[in-house]
Amino acid sequence: MYMCLHIKKLIHMESTLQENNPRFQATEMSTDQQPSTNFIGKLKANLIFRSKWAELNGAMGDLGTYIPIVLALTLASDLNLGTTLIFTGVYNFVTGAIYGIPMPVQPMKSIAAVAISNPEFGVPEIMAAGICTAGILFLLGVTGLMQLVYRLIPLSVVRGIQLAQGLSFAMTAVKYIKNVQDFAKSKSKGERDWLGLDGLLLALICAIFIVIVNGAGEAQIENQESTETSNIRRRVKKVIFSLPSACLIFLLGVILAIIRGPQAVKGFKFGPSRIEVVNISKQAWKQGFIKGTIPQLPLSILNSVIAVCKLSTDLFPEKGEITATSVSMTVGLMNLIGCWFGAMPCCHGAGGLAGQYKFGGRSGGCVALLGVAKLVLGLVLGSSMVKVLTQFPVGVLGVLLLFAGIELAMCSRDMNTKEESFVVLVCTAVSLVGSSAALGFLCGIVVHLVLKMRNMGSDGQSCSGSLWFHRNP
């Protein structure tokens, strides 16, 4: 009792001294004002350009995935392109401001694949699938379950999913380069001609140009610069290596699209598309959940949340950990708002992050700039943009997608043991052959557990320490 009274007396004396101390009052006022100033400062830091040309170049790194899927949904399912541009532009800007890295906004690929291949899976079903997927992801984020899943999944399985997704992008890119594409039917129409404004030779020249400018990575460029003795040659190399390769190739594609289809420019209608609330029937909800949400959900959890969080930690360790909780919630909120108005279901994606990083994206300003461009196009040209996109050289898009896929696949090179590499390759092989990230993930987990149990007695580890997985920082 005496001790309690003594503690209360000390607390009262300390509070009295603090109230009468002007230094404490000044400190208290500064801490009261700190949240707002910290918020504004963090926002500026997240949106600042590390290098203007590099960030602009990085913004183009995800278009090899974005444009083909959006174009295919617009042609096959009558998706409102203007509405999608407006909402995805807002998504890009907000996520760039929140995370401070080139966090991508990509289409939900499984839902898009179902819509393109099934004519009866229309806009109401697409939006129902997006809303259901978003609701589940948001719930997993709010409850903290997504962060728990992220901490329990083995790193080797995450790398397997990344390798499978990267190789899938790369193989799709090769198809774009090699064959003429019919995006409305999601089919190839035969081999591409060597010459022409969308010829194979053009795609190969673009690919070689990117290799010359970007090489295999920054380390190679730095090494060449440090060993060069001639000032003139060093300056020439510096100019070449600083060129915004992806941006220049995309601008070339736009010019060629206008040349190939001059009537598309004449058909521009200025002003945004009309934004309306989508009427979703009970049958659309049912079909959207069964055919769209169920196959999309594993891919969203693994590639759009788990793999993105791990890749962001690998590429931007100075930013600290981007939690699976926040990523899951932003994916959920994006679609819980936009899908009601007919905007394409979107998520984040490890492939988009790798592509934007490959071409120079280092801050949130990269995707914020892309978001502003989408927003302006959506408000000024609306759905009339589709006429130009149909003329865009598909081989050029394939080149951008190819390097994004390779960059993502290269993330798996940090596996140091044969056991980890074995799990990675099993997960990758099943994911690619079975065309299911969920199936590859399940097989990877099983193989990981079997290997751990096999080695449990030999290294003296306990059951819990041997079986449970990597702990992300």
What does the model show?
The protein has 473 residues and is mainly α. 72% of the residues lie in helices and 3% in strands. The protein contains 23 helices and four strands. The strands form two sheets. A two-stranded antiparallel ribbon has the order 1-4. A two-stranded antiparallel ribbon has the order 2-3. Strand 2 and strand 3 form a beta hairpin. Helix 9 packs antiparallel against helix 20 and helix 17 packs across helix 20. The longest helix has 34 residues. The two termini are 44 Å apart. The N terminus and C terminus are likely disordered.
Summarize the structure.
The protein contains 23 helices and four strands.
Largest sheet: 2 strands, antiparallel
Q: Strand portion, in percent?
A: under 5%
- Secondary structural class: mainly alpha
Shape designation = globular
Number of helices: 23
Number of E-type strands: 4
Give, in order, the helices and strands.
Answer: HHHHHEHHHHEEHHHHHHHEHHHHHHH
Distance between the termini: 44 Å
| Helical content class | over 70%
Mean pLDDT: 84
Widest β-sheet, arrangement of strands = 1-4
pLDDT below 50 for ≥5 consecutive residues: which ranges?
Answer: 1-33, 219-228, 468-473
Radius of gyration: 25 Å
